[in-house]
Amino acid sequence: MGIDSSWIIPYSDEYEGRVVHRRGNSLKIYDRKEECDDDDNYTRNAESQAATDQKEEQHQRLDISEIDLHTVEGEESVPYVVLVQGPPNVGKSLLIKSLVKFFTKHHLNDVRGPVTVVSGKHRQLQFVECPNDVNGMMDAAKYADLVLLCIDASYGFEMETFEFLNLLQAHGFPDVIGVLSHLDKIKDEGKLLHTKKRLSRQFWNEIYDGAELFYLSCLDNGMYMEDQIHNLATFISVMKINPLSWQTAHPYLLVDQFEDVTSPEREHIDKKCYRNIGMCGYLRGSNLKRGTKVHIAGVGDFPLYGITSLADPCSSRSAAKMRVTDKERLFYAPMSSHGDLLYDKDAEYIDELNDLNEIEGFRAGTYLKLEVRDIPFEMTKNIDPFCPILVGGISLEEENIGYMQARLKRHSWHIKLLKTREPIIVSVGWRRYQTRPIYAQEGGGSRLHRIHYTPKHADCLAMFWGPLAPPGTGFVAVHNLAGNKAAFRISATGFILDFTQAAEIVAKIVKKRKQVGTPLKIFKKTALIKDMFTSDLEIDWFKGVAIQTARGVRGNVKKAAKKELVRKIKNKGDQPTERIASCSFQHEISLSDEVFMRVWKQVGELKDSLDKDDPARRQRTIEQRRAVVFMDMKHRSGNIMPICEEYQFKRRPKEVLFKKEKGKQEIPQCTRRPKGCEVV
Ligand SMILES: Nc1nc2c(ncn2[C@@H]2O[C@H](COP(=O)(O)OP(=O)(O)OP(=O)(O)O)[C@@H](O)[C@H]2O)c(=O)[nH]1
Questions:
Q1: 92 C-alpha to center of ligand 1: Å?
Q2: What are 384-420's pLDDT values in tens digits?
Q3: Ligand 1 pocket at CB < 6 A
Q4: How far, in Å, from the CA of 411 to the mean position of ligand 1?
Q5: Where in the cell is it found (predicted)?
Q6: Quick check: 147 and 242 in contact, CB under 8 A?
Q7: Could you give all domains of the chain from N- to C-terminal order, each with its CATH number?
Q8: What pTM value is reported for the model?
Q9: What is the pLDDT of residues 608-642, one digit of tens each?
Q10: Closest ligand 1 atom number to CA of residue 675
């Protein structure tokens, strides 16, 4: 099957240090122009490269006999989240199935939700397939301990990979291992070696020099070859995994079992009633203290109604207390219908609840069931086992809502500049929500000049209203969440600077304004101007400031006009004689002239009245082509609208996919492969 040519971009020159190249129906991203040329000449160099590559491959193959899977001491019992990420059809599910088969000898039909396996005496691994929608990718970048970045070698790097790397950069960079799949599709030996070399060089350029990269070169009975999986599995079983600072500072759960426990009577009366839910998962990061509020990604902030400590369903130590067969002990994937240990009071394993140390709270590593009440029905209606649920604990400080000052840089692959007050969706901390920032640049002194658009290649300040996040927290901004868009979806990245002095910052932001006045009386080159100032005091402040008429006659403000003179001119004693400025001009002006003065004016409140309005009205104010469907969360989250999983977008017309810059070159908007397409 060929590629639909409508989404293919034409050949483009260097772009962000890379070359995007179209050859026939295939489209690839190269690190450097030479690589692009190299690719054409690969056959000439193939023989000479073959020897070098074979050596590299030999180095890469691990001597597994030297590694003992069960001798790693002192590791925590909480499973590491191994996120398998990659563009559609790259082989993510197949990789998880092959790894699960290697560790447990079980065959997994579908990869739904997290799959936990015991990989050794001291290590459990939880495999999660990263969804391809932006919401799922944003959350995954926050909970991943290790990322297996899958790249289709027969196609090359795709947009999803670059988007995900940007998300990782903003949320802290966990360990990343590259996995090249579909190598068996490249039949020519020379081309295969050349592709391996080119992709590994590109991968190292993106991650770091010498980053681990594994090759999966053929299938055996519909699964990856066992010896190749053995190498990868062995490596992830023993490698040191470093937790991220945001993760260690917060308690969080990746839900591997979800229950709707609303009473059927309540549901019968009102189908759209608020629901009570139970969520199970390993407590990660820091301890969970009583009274901690949690944020359910995409839904909102909720207090915890109940916390129950359960036996670890995938540990050889506690498995005896659960009703599982011996075989299932090393394998736990309730959403994939394996080891479905439904919560049972008799089997409940409670030691840490009544005697819970109030100061310490629930320890990280404990398997918990969290009960949350009054959740909007949309959450249970839209639940998707392929999209894992992230539940993050929030500190008291993060419960508040206010102004934040951030430093932001537009991503140079995003075609448009970001416009002040245009709604964007930010992913910061555990949350993702829509806000309407004001962009500014440092002006003279302590002044901040409001700018209408973000600079093209430089960073700027962004002030926005939202749930507070600690200074230094990274964030990502996107304009829309549509999965079918061809364009690069990350609009900007940045980090929070401060929120404590928000009110002062707001007072400092100024914008350019034109004050307009009209002549009251003209005495040759001097004129009395009305309607430009609000008081005589203001006229005093603006003494000497340049003014101009619409015809271009320049002048400046002199002083407030004398009261007797104004009274005489107006000829009505009771009319106000204030706010009339005496101004001098280069030439005589006429009574029909309009006089302008350019001033800096305080922006005032950042949060405009729209933020307080109901969701329906707010929705109407957003550009029509981006019709975001919000949950009605007004009563719970004040004036912040959380983003739910359910979105509807109108397709952008095809012609907008190409934008000409300076009338010269077309900027590539699409290197995303439509699902199901094959390279010919
Ligand atoms: N020939 C070959 N086929 C592969 C390879 N890896 C995966 N496939 C096939 O590609 C197809 C898609 O694989 P999946 O594992 O479902 O891919 P995925 O990334 O999970 O796809 P999505 O869930 O749609 O994003 C399956 O038919 C696999 O058998 C490979 O290395 N070589």
A1: 7
A2: 888 889 999 998 888 888 888 899 999 888 888 999 8
A3: 86, 88-94, 132, 181-182, 184-185, 216, 219
A4: 30
A5: Nucleus, Nucleolus
A6: no
A7: 80-244 (3.40.50.300), 247-337+347-394 (2.40.30.10), 401-499 (2.40.30.10), 510-602 (2.40.10.190)
A8: 0.72
A9: 433 443 333 333 333 333 333 333 332 233 333 33
A10: 24
